[in-house]
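Researcher: I'd like a structural prediction for the single chain below. Treat it as a standalone chain; there are no partners to consider.
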Amino acid sequence: MDGLENALEQALAIEGATGVAIVDFRQRRVLGSLDRGSGLDMDKVAYGDSDVMRAKLYTLELLGYTPDSVEDILITLATELHMIRPLTHLREGGI
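Model: Treating it as a single chain, here is the predicted structure.
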């Protein structure tokens, strides 16, 4: 799992990031997560946001768009932002 842990640590190093997760959104399974003591349960956030990704892909399919047209999804809350970004090379696998 060194590759997964390395990817999580690199993502958490992004300025302003308080937590990160890698999720298989097709199976709604959290593969790994890290946080900086934000108080959020990153597994719950990632699990819930996987439903957002699944819903968006379903909508794109209805409209005739390809799944690779999604670059990211931004959810703006009062005090935080949630960025959902499918991994380009693993998108077909649901990551």
